[in-house]
Design a protein that fits this description.
By secondary structure, the chain is of the alpha+beta class. It contains 5 helices and 7 strands, in the order H-H-H-E-E-H-E-H-E-E-E-E. A hairpin with a 5-residue loop joins strand 4 (156-157) and strand 5 (163-164). Helix 3 packs across helix 4 (114-132).
Amino acid sequence: MPFKFPWSGKESHENDPFWDFFINTAPADLTNTVTDLIRNAPAGNVFPTKAELHTPEITSGHVKGMAQYFGAEMIGIATLDGGADSSDNLPFAILCAVHADYDPRTAKGIGGQMPVQNGLFITFVLSSWIRELGFRAKVARDANGAALAAKAKLGNLNSEGRLVTGEFGSKVYVADPIFTDLPLAADG
């Protein structure tokens, strides 16, 4: 008979008040989280000389590899049509998603906000890397990331406008999109 740790598995958290607090109780002091710190960090400057790049397809592969290295579990690239969803005439959106056991919109505790924090880290570092390559990159907080992720073929939108993926179902968090002029090949 295999040995089983008593704390392993999701069911071990059902009647644990500390776990419920960790997931569902918003912090009394937001400085106990890194969310606002990363969101309010100033974006760096764009390096004045553009890097020599391969084809857009190879560059897209490099961007996806970097995003995966930083922790993204799903990465997609969408072309913007210059409408209301574009930002400062940047033609591409990079979408990064992470698995989320709890919905960060309802699980306001530090544990429930982990997918948000992970997404912020990924987009902050990835956009910084793109600017170091000499291209513009802007993380857009209020953009409709789920719709752009569906456009980038990461999944489909359900009736509530949430992204549903083949890998994670609706247990996925889409980080704030990165708008960029880095020449990329779109997925959708």
